[in-house]
Amino acid sequence: MTGSTEKDRRTQRLAAALRDNLKRRKAQARSRVDGAEARGPEGLADEAPAEPSTRPTKPL
Question: Could you tell me where the Basic and acidic residues compositional bias lies (predicted)?
Fold first, then answer.
């Protein structure tokens, strides 16, 4: 095997790995978006941090 043939194979393997990685990341992003759409606005309200009340509490 010559050096150029090995470089070609490495380049092809790298290109294939990068394509697979891109497909996987796109699928993950789609699933995150689909999950957010399925939850709707109510899901977003549940995830928002609760703000502390500004009114003083009554002593018990």
Answer: 31-40
